[in-house]
Amino acid sequence: MKAAVLKAFGSPLVVETVPDPVLGTGEVIVDVAATKVLAYAGDVLSGQRRYLLEPPVIPGAGCIGRVREVGPDATALTPGDWVFCDPTVRSRDNAQAPDIILQGLTAGSERAKRLQEYFHDGSWAERTRVPTECVVPIGPLSDAEAAVSWCAFGNFVVAYGGFVAANLQAGETALVNGATGAFGGGAVAVALAMGAGAVIATGRNQQALDDLVRRFGKRVTPVRMAVDEERDRQAILEAAAAPIDCVLDLLPPLATPAQVRTGLLTVRPYGRVVLMGGVRQDVAVPYDWLMRNCITIHGQWMYRRDSIGRLIALVHAGLLSLDHHEATCFGLDDVNQAIKHAATSAGPFKMTVLRP
Asked: Is there a contact between 355 and 330 (Cβ–Cβ < 8 Å)?
């Protein structure tokens, strides 16, 4: 099969013929129809982000595709099924605290690299080998729907995992801190689909904030951040018509701890905060405030396994639309061009897609 291979960090990917993946028990071979190119893929493949990824490797985290072969222990999946392939692979020998990798992207820890050695290659290829539990049926699709609509599913399911962790309830007010990125924009849509009464959306890009209101209506209240902690916190509280029940933080790596704290400290007593962003510095939180207000702070990486099927059901029910994204598609031979395009064309509801 044809695949894009990273030979060494910092070098362009090489498109070449490699051996087909070999099916094992507990695995599925999927023909890749479409796979998203992350905006920061170039930073990962250059080595700048220092992700736990071992070249030579076929990159690519997750995909939309069709089942080609199933293992002997699969009972529901059949060849030809359209599926979402979840890149979140968990070790199977520790149910309470599994090691995790994002297949084709990074290992979550040094110990998880053992798992990565086996599920080493990702989805930037004509075919990919995926653990059976990571392959979730979507239902009938057209090729166009796979590339333009369902390839955006990952932007929504990450946020859904955060709101499930926050136990978001219908009618509540949610704050999305960092709402103008790809995952943040998805979070606004997901909160509304789950029945949030209001969503406070923060960001520094006023045009992107206005676009969220245009897309989703008056239940969205934008708050432009000036990166002044006290000023921004007061602006959020004044914008909220009701106490903020939960905060989902999706701020990127370049954000500061103060920006995280700005949103975190707006939550009501007995409120919930979920941290899912990329900030790599410690965030100081007032101990007395946290204790006396009975605040729950929850760290969440990716999402629970059953969240995928539940979010697919929301899409099929018409509660969540995947049609907001503008997709620019590239063939596998143009993978290096696609990586550059993803970096320069990032933003909410913009997507770069590989179609092997």
From this structure: yes
Q: Answer for the pair 174, 168: CB distance below 8 angstroms, yes or no.
A: yes
In a domain, 320, yes or no: no
Give the chain's domain count.
Answer: 2
| Cβ(276)–Cβ(301) below 8 Å | yes
- Copy the structure tokens of residue 330: 């590239």
pLDDT tens per residue across span 225-279: 999 999 999 999 999 999 999 999 999 999 999 999 999 999 999 999 999 999 9
Q: Give the HSE-up count for residue 231: Cα atoms under 13 Å, Cβ half-sphere.
A: 5
Instruction: For residue 70, tell me if it sits in a domain.
Output: yes
Could you give the CA distance from residue 81 to residue 51 in angstroms, rounded to a whole number? Answer: 32
Whether residue 149 lies inside any domain: the answer is no
**Would you say residue 179 lies in a domain?**
yes
Domain that holds residue 30: 2-141+325-355
Collapsing DSSP states into helix, strand and coil, what is residue 137?
strand
